[in-house]
Amino acid sequence: MSFSKFTQQDYDVIAESYAQLKEAARKRCANEDELEIVQKAFDFANEAHKNVRRRSGGPYIIHPIEVAKIVVCDIGLGYKSIAAALLHDVVEDTDYTVDDLRNLFGDKIASLVEGLTKIKIVLDNEDRAKKSDTYSESLQAENFKRILLTLNDDVRVVLIKLADRLHNCRTIDSMPEYKRDKILSETMFIFIPLAHRLGLYEIKSEMENIWLKYKEPDAYNEISGLVRKNITDLEKPIDDFIAPIDAALRKSGFNFQIRKRVKTPYSIWHKMQTKNITFEQVYDLYALRVVFTPEAGTKESERDQCYHIFSIITGIYRYKPDRVRDWVKHPKSNGYEALHCTVMSDKGVWIEVQIRSKRMDDIAEKGIAAHWAYKQEGYISENDSEMDKWLEKVKEILVSPDVNALELLDIIHNDLTSSEITVFTPKGDQKTIQKGSTALDFAYGIHTEIGNKAIAAKVNMRLVPLSYVLRTGDQVEIITAENERPKREWLQFLQTRHARNVVIDYFKSNKKEIAQGGKTAMAAKLESMGYRLNSDSEEILCKFFNIPGRAAEELYFRYGLGLISMDAIGDILVPTSTSRGLSWPFSIFSRRKDQPQADKDKDGQYVIATCCRPIPGDAVVGIKNPDGSVTVHKKTCPVADSLASKHGDKVVVPRWENEGEKKAFPARIALKGIDRVGLLNEISRYISLVMGVNMKKVLLSTEEGIFEGYIDLSVHDKSALERMIRKLASIDGIQSVARTEL
After folding, report:
1. d(CA 350, CA 371)
2. Which of 376, 342, 387, 379 minimizes the C-alpha distance to 358?
3. What does the alpha-carbon distance between residue 192 and residue 187 come to, in Å, rounded to a whole number?
4. 618: how many CB neighbours lie within 10 A of its CB?
5. Which of 653, 733, 720, 718 is nearest to 690 (CA)?
6. Pairing mode, if any, of strands 694-703 and 706-715?
7. Are strands 654-656 and 694-703 parallel, antiparallel or unpaired?
8. Coil, strand or helix at 421
9. CA–CA distance, 152 with 158 (Å, rounded to integer)
10. 2-11, 277-286, 300-309, 318-327: range with lowest mean pLDDT
11. Nearest partner of 471 among 429, 427, 415, 419, judged by Cα
12. 703 has which bridge partners?
């Protein structure tokens, strides 16, 4: 922030921005008294932030105004939240106190501002402190814990914080690159999944697109250009596709709207990355939303009307059965309800159609705020408890005394990003469980004693071990024995936190015995590597594994149960560059000029991360290690996002240097196509002879005339790899070539 006297132009900008907010707020305020409180909050904040400017140079008050706009327009909150958004920086950045706000605006608005202020204070302290080079202490993680703890008090604090984060992302261009990388990593690791879980799809999508725009600008611009071109080319065919649907629904008497939607650049990029496909192979690029207002007094329920519309649309166009998603009967855990199907147009284009009622659409657009609004109005869906169940589960995790901030951040991230599947009990009762869960996870989900006494399971009437991984639609029966007890090896395959905690708690009755055995085993492991188990190694290991209270007994207990990997210990106590990745001389990278001086002075060795293996030309970010070296990741690497989310002060921005003598870097390309005689020879000849690239490994398999697989290469830079991919894609028979992770 900086200070300089506002000009008339500044006052005009402020007036225009607030006028837009006031117009939006008027629609949410029940009466003039509520609107008057919004006006009073603006006047107070405007005076408090007078002559204060943001880094971009604009008046600071624009930020709280824009946050308040998001709160009302994108989330749908009421006047108290609008006022709190306008006031959210006053206590932190001025001499006013929470008590001052309480006297002026009442307890609720003051408590909302106080919740937001506590979050900001922790985050600012983390930025200022930078006092520890270890990975065990993280005020940044404490900050996120504080954000999540507000779910216990008032979820509106989290929603306003999401609005604050969205506006910070919108204005991120004015920040230096290392700061951008930290903020975007935090956004991807915790705020985007949180927005998704709370049903705020528009906010989630916008933050994802901003993340991609700055993390992979070339990909973002290329995909955006291709989308614009496709929209222009297919505008008339899409209108022609809609026409018969519109006519049929009108004839059936539905009150509805049809909206066009194009897949976002991020969702296209993500699908291309995860499926190893090209832009042209993303067949569900377009979607239509049919939003209907249920007919009053009809015998058909809201759900039945969804199915009726589905039958009309699929009576006109052929649909893809494996692409039907019934989230009306089985809603997502964030309360999302809709019926999705993918149909083929007369022009041969696959188009997704989403069918929603007005209520479903409001919840899909405004998330938890709309969910609760309908609940308060007495519209109780049979499925609306899913959101409440999730909030209760999060609250239970948050208050657990055994979980520190870093562990909590990982637990919540995993919970936010994990997919769910639907399985059934022997009696046909539906149960939702985390994707990847085993039969034993299911047993513990039913009841602790069933899990403790489980010996096997029947899935779809077939006997399977407890480690069997469940799939959607499985019918599961657990076989128990009265004398059975939990086993340590169960911890090697249990996936759900609840089940793992139950088993760990069971063994705590023998904690001293298990810890003693763990200590003996750990000492033997270290001795075999030439190290001793002493107070120094205990401290290092406790810090690395985030052991609460640095308790050595807890360390040995976890090791004795097999919760700590034996292989990881050597990497911690022997911090060589090879333990983290491929080591290269310092001259491959240089520091950016906008990096803080304190970081510039700590020159060390750069290490290529093995999780994503960047090559020259990739956009990269560095994470500083305790020994002074820097591990270099792709900017889009989820591991880098995770580390930067917890240790933002470790983020540096290295830059590839042009080398006279180019080095070779490992890369992998995935291929798929139609097999023919001589195809492999043509591929290898081009790679080896024309491009002069060394192939390290080739793994291609053929089945019924279709081949697919990958080739590991050594390349000098990204541009050479992309030239090779373009050429290989033009070879007859090859349908797709894409760079993929090793």
Report:
1. 32
2. 379
3. 6
4. 22
5. 720
6. antiparallel
7. unpaired
8. strand
9. 10
10. 277-286
11. 419
12. 706
- Residues with catalytic function: 92-93
Quickly list DSSP for 440-491: HHHHHHH-HHHHHTEEEEEETTEEE-TTPBP-TT-BEEEEE-TT----GGGG
The whole-angstrom separation of Cα 442 and Cα 450 is 10
In Å, what is the CA distance from 38 to each residue of 10, 43, 288, 373? 21, 9, 37, 20
Q: How is residue 212 written in tokens? A: 């991609």
What pLDDT, on the 0 to 100 scale, is given for residue 316? 96
Q: What residue ranges in 161-276 does DSSP mark as E strands?
A: 255-262
Using pLDDT thresholds of 50, 70 and 90, give the confidence band for residue 588: very low
CA distance readout (Å), 670 to 273, 275, 329, 666, 733: 11, 10, 38, 14, 14
User: Is residue 609 very low, low, confident or very high in pLDDT (cuts 50, 70, 90)?
Assistant: confident
Q: Which two tokens stand for residue 503?
A: 């088993």
Q: Cα separation of 525 and 257, whole Å? A: 67
Strands (DSSP E) contained in 217-367 are: 255-262, 286-293, 325-326, 339-344, 350-357
Residue burial 444-460, b: 16+ Cβ < 10 Å; e: rest: bbeebeebbbbebbbbe
Contact 538, 552 (CB under 8 A): yes
Structure tokens at 429: 């009762």
Instruction: Find residue 259's DSSP bridge partners.
Output: 289
Q: What angle do CA 119, 125, 129 make, to 5 degrees?
A: 155
**Residue pLDDT, tens place only, 259-296:** 988 889 999 999 998 888 888 888 778 889 999 998 87
Q: How far apart are CA 246 and CA 390, in angstroms?
A: 38
DSSP, residue by residue, 726-741: HHHHTSTTEEEEEEE-
State residue 395's pLDDT score.
66
Q: For residue 672, list its beta bridge partners.
A: 708, 736
Structure-token pair, residue 692? 């002069």
